[in-house]
Design brief:
- There is one protein chain.
- The protein starts with a strand and ends with a helix.
- The chain has a single domain, classed as 3-Layer(aba) Sandwich (Aminopeptidase), CATH 3.40.630.
- With about 160 residues, the protein is of the alpha+beta class.
- Helix content is about 35%, strand content about 20%.
- A 5-stranded mixed sheet has the order 1-2-3-4-5.
């Protein structure tokens, strides 16, 4: 079952974020707190939305965190998938596909022009999974990130 997250899911969402970061060898980079997630997901101006995957007993076994983007070329909004995670013991059971299907349904229902996400180049299991769904890599583009001191310096002037 896939459902929209509620405020009570915040501890589980944070646990999943940490587990995903550990899988991606970046756990040391997670700074997010439960308070951050409660504010940014369930406050007056949500920055993102979350879907939760549950097993047959109602236990949370995965999530998808996403937000709206806009394509000037398409002249339509899009959906950016920031995080997709299914617990290791639940992988291969269709939960990741169900989360992506739910996101695709949201995009289609809202008239969005695309669903996009990033994947680490070394994550072959994920790349194979995405390609099997019909997703195609955007090899012509390179993601750039401005963060930390360079962001503060640029924003200060």
């Amino acid at each position: 079952m896939i459902r929209t997250a509620v405020r009570d899911d915040v501890p589980t969402i944070l646990r999943f974020i940490r587990e995903l970061a550990a899988y991606e060898r970046s756990e040391h980079e997670v700074r997010t707190t439960e308070d951050d997630l409660a504010r940014d997901l369930f406050g007056p101006h949500p920055a993102a939305q979350v879907l939760v995957a549950e097993d047959d007993t109602g236990g949370a076994i995965g999530f998808a965190l996403w937000f709206t983007t806009y394509s000037t070329w398409l002249g339509r909004p899009g959906l950016y998938l920031e995080d997709l995670y299914v617990t290791p013991d639940a992988r291969g059971s269709g939960h990741g596909r169900a989360l992506l299907r739910a996101l695709a349904r949201i995009a289609v229902a809202r008239g969005y022009g695309r669903v996009e996400w990033s994947v680490l180049n070394w994550n072959e299991p994920a790349i194979g999974f995405y390609k099997a769904l019909g997703a195609a890599p955007q090899d012509d583009w390179t993601v750039y990130r401005l963060t930390g001191e360079p962001l503060a310096t640029l924003g200060a002037h």
